[in-house]
Design goal:
By secondary structure, the chain is an all-alpha fold. Helix content is about 85%, strand content about 0%.
């Protein structure tokens, strides 16, 4: 293994960790948004509560 291989390895690990953190933050934000929307609609007695679950599923699938 040359020194070039060793020095490039941490960069790829850092990039992968950054991608994972960004993805995790998007999933958390999407789920919190879906929960907030669902609870708001439940308080307002609107029949649109299942849409919150659909939004959460779309965020997770994308």
């Amino acid at each position: 293994m040359s020194s070039r291989d060793v020095s490039s390895a941490p960069e790829s690990v850092d990039q992968n960790l950054k991608r994972l953190f960004v993805l995790r933050n998007f999933i958390i934000a999407g789920e919190l948004g879906a929960i907030w929307i669902a609870e708001t609609w439940m308080d307002a007695q609107l029949p649109l509560v299942p849409l919150g679950g659909m939004i959460s599923a779309m965020v997770l699938l994308n």
